[in-house]
Design brief:
5 helices; three-stranded parallel β-sheet; mainly alpha; 3 strands; about 120 residues; about 45% helix
């Protein structure tokens, strides 16, 4: 869609989403170091995690924010010029779970002084 907007400069969108991914696995598997850390010329990073983390990360409420802060620290180090944007999750499962996850996403964004892109209401 961005390519169709003729008044915008050329844009390269890189989607590194991986089915089943959660922050701890991204970092511990080495995928972050092999793929994400090496990307050149990144201007924006939209970060959307939470659904898989909730399902797979032990002690989710405590560990998810810690994992997120670690990811953000690494992104800031590897891509210091990039604007990082935390995103909420889409509605999935029961509303209470989605709200719990999005509350943590909002908390991380606020603590890191990053914008929060709330996509939840659009769904």
């Amino acid at each position: 869609l961005l390519a169709e907007e003729k008044d915008l400069p050329p844009t390269n969108v890189i989607n590194l989403g991986l089915s089943g991914e959660y922050i701890q696995r991204l970092l511990d598997s080495g995928r972050y170091d092999k793929v994400v850390s090496k990307l050149p010329g990144i201007d924006y990073v939209l970060i959307r995690y939470g659904l898989n983390d909730n399902a797979r990360r032990e002690n989710f409420v405590e560990n998810f924010p810690k994992d997120y802060h670690e990811l953000i620290a690494r992104l800031k180090k590897d891509h210091p010029q990039a604007e990082l944007i935390v995103m909420t999750v889409i509605p999935y499962g029961d509303e209470a779970t989605s709200q719990k996850i999005n509350g943590l996403n909002e908390q991380v964004a606020k603590t890191e002084n990053l914008p929060l892109f709330d996509i939840y209401p659009r769904y």
